[in-house]
Amino acid sequence: MRFPVFVDLRDKKIIVIGGGNIALRRIQTLLPFGGEIIVIAPNLHEKLVDLFNKGQIGWLQKEYTAGDCKPGYMVLACTNDRTVNYSVYLETKEINCYRNICDCKEESNFYFPGIASKGEVVVGITASGTNHLLAKNVTRKIQQELETIGVV
């Protein structure tokens, strides 16, 4: 079990390796928290292209190469390629940043939580990386409760 921590991401570089569905979900969760999100991927999900065109994220249209993670305060490996994700893990282990490797919780030093929020209230939910459906359902229930109690 891990201790929950809330981190100020304003003005911090968040590097996302990969431009597919997992990257999209994580980027959508991160956007309200103000980090400078840079995606490194040869192609982007169409919704990520929209975010790029609106100036909400940066995009380096290329394959990941060693050294790409160096400026990252937080790095997310969101590819379906185990070799790339493992390479990101090795690089980020050396640069002392927050890292989440989507296909291997053991290589991550934080879990990407479910987020329920309204106004100034932010709740992070995890099932310790073991049951994503449970975490998703709990997140949904807490979000409904926040809406019901009228948090501002």
UniProtKB/TrEMBL annotation:
InterPro entries (alphabetical): Met8-like, NAD(P)-bd_dom_sf, Sirohaem_synthase_N
Keyword Oxidoreductase tagged: yes
Broad class of enzyme this protein falls into: oxidoreductase
Name of the protein described by the UniProt record: precorrin-2 dehydrogenase
NCBIfam families linked: cysG_Nterm (TIGR01470)
Keywords: NAD, Oxidoreductase, Porphyrin biosynthesis
EC number(s) on file: 1.3.1.76
SUPFAM superfamilies, per the entry: NAD(P)-binding Rossmann-fold domains
Pathway participation: Porphyrin-containing compound metabolism; siroheme biosynthesis; sirohydrochlorin from precorrin-2: step 1/1
Gene Ontology molecular function: ferrochelatase activity; precorrin-2 dehydrogenase activity
Reactions catalysed, as given in the entry: precorrin-2 + NAD(+) = sirohydrochlorin + NADH + 2 H(+)
Top-level taxon of origin: Bacteria
A GO biological-process term: siroheme biosynthetic process
